[in-house]
Amino acid sequence: MDDLDVVGQVVGGSFGSVVVRQKSGSGLEIGDLMVSEEQGSFLILQVFELEYGSQIQDRMQQMMSGSNLEHGVSDAFYEPEFVNYVLAKIKPLARIRGGDEVKVPKSMPSFFNKLRMVTSGDLRFLHRGRDSVFVGHIRSGSKVLEDAEVWLPAEDVFAHHVMIPATTGRGKSNLVKTVMWNVIGTGRVGALILDAHDEYYGRHAPGLKDHPGADTGLAYYTPTDPPPGATRLAINLQAVRPEHFEGIVNFSEAQFQALRTYHWKLGEGWLTTMMLTSPDTAEDKIAASTMGAIQRKMRLVLGLGRDEKGRLVSKHEVFDSETKGFTTVDDIVRQIEEGRVVILDTSRLGDEAELIIGNIIASRLFEKYKGYKATGELGSKPVATIVIEEAPRVISKDVLASNNDSIYATIAREGRKFKVGLTAITQLTSVIPRTILANMNTKIILGNEMKQEREAIIQSAAQDLSEDDKNIASLDKGEAIITSIFVPFAMPVKIPLFEDLVGGTRKSERVKVLG
Amino acid sequence: MRFAHVSDLHLGFQRKRSLQEAERRIFEGMVDGWIKGGARFVLMAGDIFHVNIPEMRVQRYVFAKFRQLHEAGIPAYAIYGSHDFSPVSNSVIDLLVSTGYVTKVTDAVTGEDGVITPKFTTDPGTGAKICGISGLKVGRDIDYYKKLDRKGIEAEPGFKIFMFHGSISEMRKAADEGDHMPMSMLPAGFDYYAGGHVHEYGTGGDDSHGVVAYPGTPFAGNYADFVASAGDTKRGYIMADSSGDKVSVEFVESGSPEHVPITVDANGRSPQIVNERLEEKAGAEDPVGKIMVVRVYGQMSEGRTADVDTARVSLGLLERGALAVEVGRNMLTSREYDVVRVRGESRDQIVRGVLETNIGQVRTGIERLEGGSGVRIAEELLRRIGQPKIENEDNKTYDARMITDGSKTMGLSLDDP
């Protein structure tokens, strides 16, 4: 190691909390990755805490400061870089042997060993696997290693569920767009994105529509003025079944019973008939009050009403009781099965209507994939993922305790066996049950200033992040930590700016480039 | 302004003499209906003929009626469909165009950047501006639409009609495997969209697209059409009226013969029981002058599919005066002898299924002949080389035509080694 490369030296500590004295001027940051070269291998270590160190006692320092502040006495030290310094606490992440054999470290770096910053040459083990998806570049503190790309095995990662915990403004949309950009065209991942803000397609800005493979790899459904190539989002009410409301709309048991009765008796036309029937003349002696309550809820949730001719219409034109939307659900499911990314613009819908549409499609998809497993065809199908924002709407403790499971909860628990996964985006990890969090085997953690949420994330991480509370709190926009059973250690990454991807470069918005 | 809209006549499809006669009668009746009904012009949205060069018998009566239409001062505007167009040889439609009986509205200018600007044809009697895109081959339709100069044609003032031949995703009633495209691919701002390719009547449209309509086939272009006609599907054409900003659409029945379904679910039954059911159902119907549509489906519990004697039932119906008997048993299998690997309602569906099942074994080293593209080319090839001889065509000429058509369909030159 060249002396110029040295940034610190091991001076103490314990396993998991090694103390390093920083070489003056090296400017260590929280999250920095360092290398300790050992015999036949090297350790990659990460800074998780920084503090001052000094050869002068505290009381003396305070007295010198007083002299300086009150009497203007010079505060110059003799050999200041020797007297005062920074101590960094670092933890070992991985031991690398032979360039690409990665092991969980079980020993400490040699005492007094000199450390250098990591370079892309140290990270050759991060090679791109078959059918893998690009997520970002390795980040050391706020510095980006441009040549060290992080690729995740797409099929494994999406089948085992992905969670993206972050607060507002930390780059969630940019992350999802970047991941999906790299999924399009692989043919190995089909995705359904419930896009509540109509931001992924990119009607008026760069978006997934700009992908060179968008023609065959992307489908966009919108109820509003579809651009050329997009399909108008219309779901015929015949596709709706009583179970699609489970876990989403708060119907009483009597009300659910009434829904099932109508569905059982009338088949596909049940909902239209139910909405157009006077509450006093309901089937099977269903109480007028129950019928009236159902109709009120349905009107609110699905935006249904009657036009001047007495026909059932939806105010946002997504649900149709007559001629439209017979094939939409099957078309979308088929496109997902073909490995396409399907974006549903649900920006005009209420929360519950959005979830019901997702439920209808996810249920059909899940049923089909279960069928494929039974017939032995599952292996040839791409993994399917359902991207859902504000995931606690369907998988929080409260929702799961008060309602029957929705399809989203079922997929979270059982989907992995059938190659159907969730990509759950949330600000509130703490409200999701541990049983579901434990099934989310990849978490792409963005910045989060709420301590309670950070603790929930840390407790459910695939790697030990117990010392990373400050690290997560200090994540800047676009910076992330990937913790997953499919990566050798919790990887600090910088997500590229989506606009750069669209522009044809995969550059990050980098502060400083290493490597 | 009143105009007629028809599509998917598939003239020349019928093989049975009685149905050929019905096909001719329906066509002639429709032309008479357009003249009597006061149509100022007629829109023909593809698949007028079942093949690009139908037999002379068909050409003879078609030319006679088009002449009559022409002499009545009613222009006919047409696009090609996927059946009556050949990328490598002429079509009878070209002859109709040469005689002036039909005007093709598919002219377009392709810029250096590949952008395609369709040229409008203005109907002299009404001032209606018409343009369109034919149903192209091998799934290339959507590429054509992507290159369309939308702004140019959308900005054109006046009453505008766009003709197309393809299925619109949002208007389908069943999620079949066929090609389709979203309505947004059609240029916006036209008053009427005259569609073809879809064999059942339907209308749609949205804020950006006035009336999008399919008249459906007036008779039949495949077996599935007989099945649909034996159900609730009506056959005919559209008479449209434009007054002010609105276009209203009226569906006029074509006088297609009555179709009667004789359907037997063979699931879990023996051939003997299935035969008894068939006889029973056939015996309960009055077949005189009607098209009897026999359909047997499901997996029998025992025996061979050949043991189901639909021929006997057909013969009985014909002897009792049926106009024709159309039999569909492609969905019939047996648990004991389950040899049918690919199922479908029509010949086209079955052919596609067989090709899709086996295309993986093709290793030519030529990308376009493999995968999905290979399936489409193979379908097209089968259709091309399945064409009958033209009247008075000798074997040598026919063989040469087939070889040329086949080679060009595969993108091969006859000079290739």
Features:
heterodimer; A: 515 residues; alpha/beta; Rossmann fold; 3 domains; 17 helices; 24 strands; elongated; disordered C terminus; B: 417 residues; Purple Acid Phosphatase, chain A, domain 2; 6-stranded mixed beta sheet; 11 helices; 18 strands; 21% strand; globular
Description of the molecule:
The complex is a heterodimer of chains A (515) and B (417). Chain A is an alpha/beta fold and 515 residues long. Chain A has three domains: 3-123, no CATH class; 153-230 and 326-444 and 455-470, 3-Layer(aba) Sandwich (Rossmann fold); 238-319, no CATH class. Chain A is built from 17 helices and 24 strands. In chain A, the strands form four sheets. Chain A has a 13-stranded mixed beta sheet with strand order 13-12-18-11-19-20-10-21-22-23-8-9-24. A six-stranded antiparallel barrel of chain A has the order 1-2-5-4-3-7. In chain A, helix 6 crosses helix 7 (270-276) and helix 6 (253-266) crosses helix 8 (288-302). Chain A starts with 5 loop residues before the first strand and ends with a strand. Mean pLDDT of chain A is 88; it is low at 505-515. Chain B is an alpha/beta fold and 417 residues long. Chain B folds into three domains: 2-253, Metallo-dependent phosphatases (Purple Acid Phosphatase, chain A, domain 2), CATH 3.60.21.10; 259-340, no CATH class; 350-409, no CATH class. Chain B has eleven helices and 18 strands. Chain B has helices at residues 17-36, 56-71, 92-99, 141-146, 150-154, 223-229, 271-283, 310-319, 347-358, 371-385, 395-409, and strands spanning 2-6, 41-45, 76-79, 102-104, 108-110, 116-118, 121-122, 129-133, 160-165, 192-196, 202-204, 211-214, 236-243, 246-253, 259-265, 291-300, 324-328, 332-334. A six-stranded mixed beta sheet of chain B has the order 4-3-2-1-13-14. Chain B has a six-stranded mixed beta sheet with strand order 7-8-9-10-12-11. In chain B, strand 15, helix 7 (271-283) and strand 16 (291-300) form a beta-alpha-beta unit. In chain B, helix 1 packs parallel to helix 2, helix 7 (271-283) runs parallel beside helix 8 and helix 10 packs antiparallel against helix 11 (395-409). Chain B starts with a strand and ends in an 8-residue tail after the last helix. At the A-B interface, strand 13 and helix 9 of A face loops of B.
